[in-house]
Specification:
Keywords: Cell membrane, G-protein coupled receptor, Membrane, Receptor, Transducer, Transmembrane, Transmembrane helix. By secondary structure, the chain is an all-alpha fold. It contains 10 helices and no strands.
């Protein structure tokens, strides 16, 4: 029986119980560098958006919509800061952090991903009420209720994550085949529940809400065009408000399409193979899954000129000057 060289093992002292060190090819190294660049870009862009919304409070006061946006972009920031580098380390290097940290990492992945999906559902509902029931928006979508919903969303994601990784939390390292790897195996029941609760159910709600938003937005756009000759100050203000709401709905629609494009490959493959994390395509599907967090701020920058102006003020350190929060960036 051929034995492996000690230099090829993660833990040479354990001999046959140790995992083999991953061998990185040139092409894999190039892809890895690109993924690290995407991770850095994700962290930077989402941090810029969070600073922009939070710092320029006089121009963009803290409202229910901005609170939901900050919550969503903070999730994307965590994906770039923790999950992307963690997946790179888990899949391309020997795991030296132990079984407990591996189990906690799996819990963190589930927590952040579930929280991200919940945030998108909340944003979709916020836009639905703003477009379809504008007269009731101020009374139904209050800042206090939004904060409560965000808290409940993360609490629910935390409880669901305990169910999802319960076996690993009870017995860390139960899924590994050798020392030096961090793997996570789920049962058929857990995989099916995750497919329903983390994909089919939220996607159904999001698509339903946005179809309603799209229908109402189209009717409102036609109404605005038909009354374009009525030029009064009040109508102009109302028209500007409507245009802002319609633009937000359009941006949300693009975000949802990108979300589905990034999330569908992972969950579509889970229909064929419930335990996706144990397949050879796991890392690729997971990185596509995470790539949504990088695209979100790019879409935001593309559709909102005030964000590009805010970036210039942040990069040039003008935000450090007294009274910079009162700067007009609209």
């Amino acid at each position: 029986m051929e034995t492996r060289s000690s230099t090829e093992l993660c833990f040479p002292q354990l001999l046959n119980n140790s995992c083999k060190k991953p061998e990185r090819l040139w092409s894999e190294a190039v892809i890895l560098d690109m993924v690290l660049l995407v991770s850095l870009l994700t962290v930077t862009l989402n941090l810029l958006i969070i600073i922009s919304i939070s710092h320029f409070s006089s121009t963009h006061p803290l409202t229910s919509s901005s609170s939901l946006a900050v919550s969503d972009f903070f999730v994307d920031f965590l994906v770039g800061l923790l999950l992307m580098p963690g997946e790179i380390f888990r899949s391309t290097a020997c795991w030296f952090l132990g079984d407990v940290i591996c189990s906690l990492y799996c819990y963190l992945v589930c927590q952040i991903v579930s929280g991200s999906i919940g945030s998108i559902v909340l944003i979709s509902f916020d836009r639905y009420v703003a477009i379809c029931h504008p007269l009731h928006y101020a009374t139904r979508i209050t800042l206090g209720r939004v904060k409560c919903c965000i808290g409940l969303c993360w609490l629910g994601a935390g409880l669901y994550s305990i169910f999802y990784v319960r076996d690993e939390l009870v017995q860390p390292g139960r899924s590994k085949s050798c020392f030096g790897e961090c793997t996570f195996v789920i049962s058929y029941v857990t995989g099916t529940v995750d497919l329903v609760l983390n994909f089919i159910f939220p996607v159904s709600i999001i698509v339903f809400l946005y179809v309603r938003v799209f229908v109402v937005a189209v009717s409102q756009a036609r109404a605005m065009r038909s009354h374009v000759t009525a030029v009064t100050l009040r109508c102009s203000v109302n028209a500007a408000t409507k245009r802002s709401e319609l633009k937000a709905a359009k941006t949300l629609g693009i975000l949802i399409v990108v979300y589905l494009m990034c999330y569908c490959p992972y969950y579509s493959y889970s229909v064929v193979e419930v335990n996706v994390t144990s397949t050879v395509y796991a890392s690729f599907l997971i990185f596509v899954f995470y790539f949504n967090s990088c695209l979100n701020p790019l879409i935001y920058a593309l559709f909102y000129p005030w964000f590009r102006k805010a970036i210039r003020l942040i990069v040039t350190l003008q935000v450090l000057q007294p009274g910079s929060c009162d700067a007009s960036i609209l």
